[in-house]
Amino acid sequence: MSTPTPHIAAGKGDFAKTVLMPGDPLRAKFVADNYLENAVLVNPVRGVNGYTGTYKGKKVSVMASGMGMPSIGIYSYELYHFYDVDNIIRIGTAGSMHKDLKIRDIAFAMGACTNSDFASQFELPGTFAPIASYDLLSKAIKVTEEMGIHYMAGNFLSSDTFYDDSQGTMKWAKMGVLCVEMEAAALYMNAARAGKNALAICTISDSIVTGEATTAEERQESFHDMMKIALEIA
Prior knowledge:
The chain is of the alpha/beta class. It is built from 6 helices and 9 strands. The chain has helices at residues 25-35, 69-82, 134-147, 184-194, 216-221, 224-233; strands spanning 18-21, 37-43, 50-55, 58-63, 87-96, 106-114, 151-158, 179-181, 197-207. A 5-stranded mixed β-barrel has the order 5-8-7-6-9, surrounded by 4 helices. A hairpin with a 6-residue loop joins strand 2 and strand 3. The radius of gyration is 17 Å and the shape is globular. It starts with 17 loop residues before the first strand and ends with a helix. The model has no long low-confidence stretch (mean pLDDT 94).
């Protein structure tokens, strides 16, 4: 397949080597409007807008991933394989499963457990453990500590279900899993298969432990810390 792909209308060279990927297209626009200089719309397909500009003189792109592993699986695959992207940094939201991980805290996915069957396509004779790029993770933690931001790093749960009829999400907490989201595992697997780099940085938008939650508007526009961390390491 050559560019453009079925889901991205950009041409060769339109994306930077590093792409930030929020789930929400409006959060991608917010990053482009508020943090990137001379941002240009490079992909308008399906409303999943992608932008490329500069941050402190460095070329950076931002494009939404949509919700769930099938969606980020498509976009990350095409960016890695057809647009020569080397690094994808997810900037998303997650639900806390840990008493010390409060709303608006930052969480880094060192690894991503999952209830998805995404890994079956690779036909491995066992269980694959999706992990972050150590280089991106170590840089992000360094920046976060310099900024004085509270964070936790550990295992995430990437779930295929938002409304879980089995009510089994919190069972993962007994294994030390910090929080639940819906994309990191597929992103990490695609990065591993492509020989590229990936990191999921999430802001805690709600807590399964305490019941606290942020609003949709806050999730779209106010989670600045993770945006700044991602941009600093881009």
